[in-house]
Design brief:
Radius of gyration: 28 Å
Strand content: under 5%
Mean pLDDT: 88
Low-confidence stretches: none
Order of helices and strands: HHH
Distance between the termini: 70 Å
Number of strands: 0
Length: 75
Amino acid sequence: MNTFIVHADSKVSKALIAIFKALNVNFEVEKTAKKTKESPYDPEFVKMILERSESAKKGNVIEYTPELRKKWFGK
């Protein structure tokens, strides 16, 4: 026995079902909910970025100045 996995829209699915029935092939149909667009980013990372963004909107920022650059990088 072979297993085929086919992802098809409803129009194509109906045609495939008709073909399988005509060929007397056993088959299963599994309906899936439409996928929501999944983020490629780690949810914890996204949460951290959103929290930092809110914090910056509230004024919790450090201004990057030449003096600060010299302090951090010595140049």
